[in-house]
Amino acid sequence: MTNITGVIFTSLGGFMKLVKLNLLFIVAVIAGLGVFSFFPALVAMTAVTKSWARGEDVPIFRKFMEVFRSRYKRAQLFGVMTTVVAVILIVDIVALRTVQTAWSDALIVALFGITFLSIAFSVFTIQLLVDVPFKQAMKRAFFTMMACLHWCVVLILGLTAIAATVLFYPVSLLFLPCACMALWSTCITQIAFMSVEKRAERFNQETVSS
């Protein structure tokens, strides 16, 4: 009975942490009118989920605000560059398509949204794991996902499932999806990144020994 109670309280504690982080992200974005705070808030939220993924129990508000302030300019720069890359990709897709229907437009928008979030979360997570310039972070994010395509698929499927939940239950936007997307993406990206790092380390060891 005690074990069951402990599991319930632990689960509720984790749920409330996600809710708190989600609300904090939404408030920060609204306070900055979106344009001035979305990417810094996204980086701050990702920093919190990165700590959770490493098993660290950090104070959510303090950690969020600390990263938000210290990485504001860098996050805005990364955000603008990521948006430019995403817009170029979607323009190319639209220009190359031959069929134009309401369903194809909706599919393109959905794929754009999921792809954009995948790129943004991956780039920001890797930039937090390894403090490198945007170009290097983008390269690492791309090669990490290409080297671990199965994890890339898992990442996109997870984000799609969370987005579908919001579509069918819009009220859930206030409580969970943003934090859940950040936590899911952070965990998957970190697993893929560490996998690639281990492969590179083994390759270097084999090269030196040979």
From TrEMBL:
Key words of the record = Membrane, Transmembrane, Transmembrane helix
Locate the transmembrane regions by residue number.
23-44, 75-95, 107-130, 142-168, 174-196
Entries under InterPro entries matching the protein: DUF624 (IPR006938)
Q: What domain of life does the UniProt record list for this protein's source?
A: Bacteria
- The protein in question is named DUF624 domain-containing protein
